[in-house]
Description:
By secondary structure, the chain is mostly helical. It has a single domain, classed as Hypothetical protein af1432. The chain has twelve helices and no strands. The protein has helices spanning about 5-10, 15-30, 35-45, 45-65, 70-85, 95, 105-110, 115-125, 130-135, 160-170, 185-195, 200-215. Helix 2 (about 15-30) crosses helix 5 (about 70-85), helix 5 crosses helix 9 and helix 9 (about 130-135) packs across helix 10 (about 160-170). The longest helix is centred in the N-terminal third of the chain and has 20 residues, at about 45-65. The chain binds fe (ii) ion (2 copies). One fe (ii) ion (FE2) binds near residues 84, 85, 113, 138 and 139.
Amino acid sequence: MSAVPTAMQSGTPIDYGSFKDSCAPLIGVLYDGDVKSVLDAVREHDNYTFSHSFKVATLLTMFGSAIGLSEADQVLLACGGLLHDVGKMSIPFELLNKPDKLSPEEWAVMKSHVPTTMDFLNICDGIPKGAQIIAAQHHEKLDGTGYPNGLKGLAINELARMAAIVDIYGALTDRRSYKPEMAPETAFDLMSESMSDQLDTGLLKVFRHIVLDQTR
Length: 216
Ligand SMILES: [Fe+2]
Ligand SMILES: [Fe+2]
């Protein structure tokens, strides 16, 4: 089912069997009342963060399913994808949707969504550790230029390396107040040309195939 959004854009039919299988972990997580109530609060604050979280969770779960990860890991991907940006509830709506370039001070506020997410998930009952790691590390980069901890290479968890790729792909292919949406191929070209030191290029290649194969 991978690229549901891109498949929909191109009018390509999707294979319902694989769609249903790879959606199962996501649907399971959504039945969790605690996750749903957190997501309702996210939607209340900023509808874009809500839809972005769904897109990331859907693509991440599909990614995990396509590369043969265990169902337990797929559940972590679904849960981590849905919750990775909940700390954005603490960022003013105007800043999240600002059409202009952010000042250094505004960037610092924006980056604070990661520790805020971690503080929040820490006090929630039953959020799996693996989902918390995805949220904690989704802005880390292999070359150490990411945040909040500047982790390098294999210090970044594999599921979080997948999340970093899907998070950027999701953002590039969405239209925002400050930019138009990018076509999937263009987004992948940009990521593999200018972010090859930052992203896991092996995983990026695999994800590219999964997404683009659905649209051909
Ligand atoms: Fe984020
Ligand atoms: Fe995100």
